Amino acid sequence: MSENMLLKPIRVGGKTLRNRMVLPPMETRLNMPNGNVTPELIDYYAARAAGGASMIIVENTFVDGKESRSSLISSGLYSDHLIAGKNLLAEAIQDEGAVAVIQLSHGGRQAIAAATGLQPVAPSALE
Prior knowledge:
Blueprint: E1 10-12, E2 15-17, E3 22-23, H1 39-50, E4 55-62, E5 75-76, H2 83-95, E6 99-105, H3 113-116
Parallel strand pairs: 3-4, 4-5, 4-6
Antiparallel strand pairs: 1-2
Helix pairs in contact: 1-2
């Protein structure tokens, strides 16, 4: 019987992952309007780590408080006041044995005016 490579540990950079299952970034819409975490968001990611994923990539996270939001309740990391919540999230993921990673993003053309209060701008009119 062959060994299941999916369940084998793997070293990535300085981290050893317990297996090769990774949760990709998917917007949950469980954040607060200011981009901070909620208890539901922490529970959601902790459950995926407890379920066996060895790396959790936290959803698209906007990087400024003005132009980079892609929705009204996206994850944000544009100010020091958001660090404590993201730390709680990372600790919950790590407590379940997974590595926490975050996807930093800018909404660009897909930003919506209702989220940013600005008309989205992109280098091209193409969609």
